[in-house]
Design a protein that fits this description.
CATH superfamily of the largest domain: CofE-like
CATH topology of the largest domain: 60s Ribosomal Protein L30, Chain: A
GO molecular function: ligase activity
Organism: Actinopolymorpha pittospori
Structural class: alpha+beta
Largest sheet: 6 strands, mixed
Keywords: Ligase
Number of domains: 2
Protein name: F420-0:gamma-glutamyl ligase
Strand content: 15-25%
Distance between the termini: 24 Å
Radius of gyration: 18 Å
Order of helices and strands: EEHEHEHHHHHEEHEEHHE
CATH architecture of the largest domain: 2-Layer Sandwich
Number of strands: 9
Length: 226
């Protein structure tokens, strides 16, 4: 299957430099797939100097780093706190009880209750995002608990683990590798390899969310300076 078949290259200019981007559509991936093999299978046209930007969710799934919702036992506190969550359109955020419970267990009750109290105090003044700023990246970035992964949670990669995975793939594939968490509201670059474009450059190149995974099933993209 040629990577050029499902989607066309698009071009973007960042700080006077041009980049081409190709979101790559694949078959449906599961935890039984191998990330390196998937990239090799669908990235036959990769060239030296390219960077492969991989969706963090897919990297977590194929690395076996997800959490089963069956292993998360939701308590009364989590159910109570979810009542006050106001997710963005198209997102459920921490309104999913299993996600709230996981965050409570991982970050601790004092931090979550402090963040919730601060959010309650600042919201009447039109200040948004206080809870996530204080609770941190886990609360902000945890995904899953909804179709098609109702039974899985996707905690964000530990940065050192993400960097290690990028370095291993870089060495084996011979191109730059980045793990990214990008959506229509922004996102972040979790890690990059030695051959990859810088995190700052990638953030700008991917700012318009060319992966658009929910709409097109494209777990990674090829970024090429032009």
């Amino acid at each position: 299957m040629s990577i050029a078949e499902p989607r066309a290259w698009t071009k973007i200019t960042v700080d006077g430099n041009s980049f081409q981007r190709l979101p790559v559509r694949t078959r449906w991936l599961t935890e039984k797939d191998d990330l390196e093999r998937v990239i090799s299978e669908y990235g036959a046209d990769l060239e030296p100097g390219d960077t492969v930007a991989i969706s963090e969710k897919v990297a977590l799934l194929l690395a076996g780093a997800t959490v089963s919702t069956l292993d998360v036992h939701v308590g009364r506190e989590a159910k109570f706190l979810t009542r006050f969550v106001r997710p963005r359109p198209g997102s459920r955020g921490l309104s999913v009880p299993e996600k709230m419970q996981y965050v409570l267990q991982t970050l601790g009750r004092p931090r979550i209750y402090a963040a919730a109290a601060a959010a309650a105090l600042t919201r009447p003044f039109g200040v948004r995002g206080t809870f996530y700023r204080l609770a941190g990246s886990l609360a902000r970035d945890i995904d899953g608990g909804r179709p098609p992964y109702e039974e899985l949670l996707f905690p964000p990669f530990d940065q050192s683990e993400a960097a290690k995975l990028c370095a291993e793939l870089d060495e084996r594939l011979g191109v730059g590798v980045a793990i990214v968490d990008i959506n229509d509201f922004g996102g972040s670059i979790r890690a990059v390899s030695a051959r990859s474009l810088s995190a700052a450059t990638l953030a700008n190149v991917l700012a318009d969310n060319p992966l658009r995974q929910r709409l097109s099933g494209t777990p990674f993209a090829i970024i090429r300076p032009s």
